[in-house]
Amino acid sequence: TAGRLLPQALLPIWDMDLCVRELIRCHEEYGLVGIVMTDSPELWKLPTLSEHYWDPLWTEAQDRGLPINFHIGGGASIGNLWAGMDQPTAIAAMSSLADITNMRGLINLIFSGLLDRYPNLKFVSVESGMGWIPFLLELAQYQIGQNGVTHLRLTPLEYFRRQIYASYWFETDVAYAVQRLGPDNIMFETDFPHPACLYPSVQDQVQKSLGGLAQSVQRKILYETAAKVYQLPLTGE
Asked: What is the SS3 assignment for 55-123?
């Protein structure tokens, strides 16, 4: 359906001049509203994302308001499973572990100082759920205090609320995460067309996970935050 499919750009990250030109082309010629990135370019012998090699890309994306999307499985290996699992069990176990790559990405974002250098650049943790995020941010804050980290300008929670976003689909008990994180950085997804998607029970899941929250919070999580992050016009605007 026209206007309903909003793909994200994949860029030739091995050549920074070409990478930036492709970002501009995708945005200006095709209207793409964000990019998908690995959080582990070192796997291809490229600098880590906090190094200055990436500055031209971050600057262009920030100036254009284009978010950087980290999809699960797009980074470092999650490790090997224990032996003896049949194929369905192994797939389920690997899928359950996949969020670890996004946990790594968020921790690196926060501790690297990249968010201080680009305070208006948005990052999205895609298809990774959100129940683990309050724990991770609290853990990061604890370790900052335990280890005397002094170079960060904000707390992990403040960084998250300023420029990091998360999406969820299967979780039903989301009130705690919404209360801890705030309602402005959470987006509902259906995970379509993956086998684990919510169809045909999307409305049931919306009611289970959001039915007890205020209508204003539901609107943010269901569509207003996504419209803000990806610079999308809402119907009637």
From this structure: HHHHHHHHHHCCCEEEECCCCCCCCCCCCCCCHHHHHHHHHHHCHHHHHHHHHHHHHHCHHHHCCCCCE
CA dist 30 to 27, 68, 141, Å?
6, 17, 40
205 residue type, one letter: Q
Reduced to 3 states (helix: H, G, I; strand: E, B; else coil), residue 182 is coil
124: amino acid identity, one letter: V
DSSP annotation of 167: E
* pLDDT given at position 100: 85
Those residues of the chain that have pLDDT short of 70 are 1-2, 76, 236-237
Helix (H) or strand (E) holding 169: none
What is residue 80's predicted lDDT score, i.e. its pLDDT? 82
pTM: 0.94
Rg over CA atoms, the chain = 18
